[in-house]
Amino acid sequence: MPQLNPAPWFAILVFSWLIFLTVIPPKVLAHTFPNDPTLQSTEKPKTEPWTWPWH
Amino acid sequence: MTLSFFDQFMSPTYLGIPLIALALSLPWILYPKPTTRWLNNRLITLQGWFINRFTQQIFQPLSLGGHKWATLLASLMLFLITLNMLGLLPYTFTPTTQLSLNMAFAVPLWLATVIIGMRNQPTHALGHLLPEGTPTLLIPVLIIIETISLFIRPLALGVRLTANLTAGHLLIQLIATAAFVLLPLMPTVAILTAVLLFLLTLLEVAVAMIQAYVFVLLLSLYLQENV
């Protein structure tokens, strides 16, 4: 079986890991996923006045 | 020189360039890098959904420590599934039929999971060698058996992928040859063989995807044990 021929195995190992480490992760990481859009409620948020105690 | 059916798996060279180098470097043209726009085109959106859902699926059962492997396993999945699927096109070379490539990925990644387990939680990692509830007399035997099964894992991982893809390609070539040879002799049988070839190709598409998934899934399971 030609696959059992050990001759280019090291070259294949090095080359495939090279591609796997340099080319693919940047493409994978470049996919960003924005947050899901939330339904904005029509009520305005109630703002309670808060006295900031400074002392 | 007579051509045997295994010759399709020899690493071909054309004008001094090993074609496996082309087969490994060119498929990534099919994955354009997403732009910084909020809405990308259909291809990138679909690829993004696939990567997102796949990563979610694989990493759901893993504890947080294992989530560092997300990029690696997502890249590995993309790598394997692309190479497998493109290999089903005529006149292409499938690098994953080469045992050297599959072992090159299986052994280091498996070893990494084992080393992580042994360094961070050695007792827990070694505890996997003895299933709960074994009778006392069987303990030594079972530890030996479990150790052997631990070391067989990378071999199984690599050989599983190689064998599945090689067998698939071989079957396709055999049945295609049969259909081609039968065409002038017995056309009806040739048509039936062609139908069989079509169904086999569909099976091989499924096998290509499943084998890539199984490879990555098993690695995530080995990681789960050790993290």
TrEMBL record, chain A:
<dbReference type="GO" id="GO:0031966">
    <property type="term" value="C:mitochondrial membrane"/>
</dbReference>
<keyword id="KW-0732">Signal</keyword>
<dbReference type="GO" id="GO:0015078">
    <property type="term" value="F:proton transmembrane transporter activity"/>
</dbReference>
<comment type="subunit">
    <text>Component of the ATP synthase complex composed at least of ATP5F1A/subunit alpha, ATP5F1B/subunit beta, ATP5MC1/subunit c (homooctomer), MT-ATP6/subunit a, MT-ATP8/subunit 8, ATP5ME/subunit e, ATP5MF/subunit f, ATP5MG/subunit g, ATP5MK/subunit k, ATP5MJ/subunit j, ATP5F1C/subunit gamma, ATP5F1D/subunit delta, ATP5F1E/subunit epsilon, ATP5PF/subunit F6, ATP5PB/subunit b, ATP5PD/subunit d, ATP5PO/subunit OSCP.</text>
</comment>
<dbReference type="GO" id="GO:0045259">
    <property type="term" value="C:proton-transporting ATP synthase complex"/>
</dbReference>
<dbReference type="InterPro" id="IPR001421">
    <property type="entry name" value="ATP8_metazoa"/>
</dbReference>
<keyword id="KW-0812">Transmembrane</keyword>
<feature type="signal peptide">
    <location>
        <begin position="1"/>
        <end position="30"/>
    </location>
</feature>
<dbReference type="Pfam" id="PF00895">
    <property type="entry name" value="ATP-synt_8"/>
</dbReference>
<keyword id="KW-0406">Ion transport</keyword>
<dbReference type="InterPro" id="IPR050635">
    <property type="entry name" value="ATPase_protein_8"/>
</dbReference>
<keyword id="KW-0138">CF(0)</keyword>
<keyword id="KW-0496">Mitochondrion</keyword>
<keyword id="KW-0375">Hydrogen ion transport</keyword>
<feature type="region of interest" description="Disordered">
    <location>
        <begin position="35"/>
        <end position="55"/>
    </location>
</feature>
<keyword id="KW-1133">Transmembrane helix</keyword>
<keyword id="KW-0813">Transport</keyword>
<comment type="function">
    <text>Subunit 8, of the mitochondrial membrane ATP synthase complex (F(1)F(0) ATP synthase or Complex V) that produces ATP from ADP in the presence of a proton gradient across the membrane which is generated by electron transport complexes of the respiratory chain. ATP synthase complex consist of a soluble F(1) head domain - the catalytic core - and a membrane F(1) domain - the membrane proton channel. These two domains are linked by a central stalk rotating inside the F(1) region and a stationary peripheral stalk.</text>
</comment>
<keyword id="KW-0066">ATP synthesis</keyword>
<keyword id="KW-0472">Membrane</keyword>
<protein>
    <recommendedName>
        <fullName>ATP synthase complex subunit 8</fullName>
    </recommendedName>
</protein>
<dbReference type="GO" id="GO:0015986">
    <property type="term" value="P:proton motive force-driven ATP synthesis"/>
</dbReference>
Automatic annotation (TrEMBL), chain B:
<dbReference type="InterPro" id="IPR023011">
    <property type="entry name" value="ATP_synth_F0_asu_AS"/>
</dbReference>
<comment type="subunit">
    <text>Component of the ATP synthase complex composed at least of ATP5F1A/subunit alpha, ATP5F1B/subunit beta, ATP5MC1/subunit c (homooctomer), MT-ATP6/subunit a, MT-ATP8/subunit 8, ATP5ME/subunit e, ATP5MF/subunit f, ATP5MG/subunit g, ATP5MK/subunit k, ATP5MJ/subunit j, ATP5F1C/subunit gamma, ATP5F1D/subunit delta, ATP5F1E/subunit epsilon, ATP5PF/subunit F6, ATP5PB/subunit b, ATP5PD/subunit d, ATP5PO/subunit OSCP.</text>
</comment>
<protein>
    <recommendedName>
        <fullName>ATP synthase subunit a</fullName>
    </recommendedName>
</protein>
<feature type="transmembrane region" description="Helical">
    <location>
        <begin position="69"/>
        <end position="89"/>
    </location>
</feature>
<dbReference type="Pfam" id="PF00119">
    <property type="entry name" value="ATP-synt_A"/>
</dbReference>
<keyword id="KW-0066">ATP synthesis</keyword>
<keyword id="KW-0375">Hydrogen ion transport</keyword>
<keyword id="KW-0472">Membrane</keyword>
<feature type="transmembrane region" description="Helical">
    <location>
        <begin position="171"/>
        <end position="199"/>
    </location>
</feature>
<feature type="transmembrane region" description="Helical">
    <location>
        <begin position="101"/>
        <end position="118"/>
    </location>
</feature>
<comment type="similarity">
    <text>Belongs to the ATPase A chain family.</text>
</comment>
<dbReference type="GO" id="GO:0046933">
    <property type="term" value="F:proton-transporting ATP synthase activity, rotational mechanism"/>
</dbReference>
<dbReference type="InterPro" id="IPR000568">
    <property type="entry name" value="ATP_synth_F0_asu"/>
</dbReference>
<feature type="transmembrane region" description="Helical">
    <location>
        <begin position="12"/>
        <end position="31"/>
    </location>
</feature>
<keyword id="KW-0813">Transport</keyword>
<feature type="transmembrane region" description="Helical">
    <location>
        <begin position="138"/>
        <end position="159"/>
    </location>
</feature>
<feature type="transmembrane region" description="Helical">
    <location>
        <begin position="205"/>
        <end position="223"/>
    </location>
</feature>
<keyword id="KW-0999">Mitochondrion inner membrane</keyword>
<keyword id="KW-0406">Ion transport</keyword>
<keyword id="KW-0496">Mitochondrion</keyword>
<keyword id="KW-1133">Transmembrane helix</keyword>
<dbReference type="GO" id="GO:0005743">
    <property type="term" value="C:mitochondrial inner membrane"/>
</dbReference>
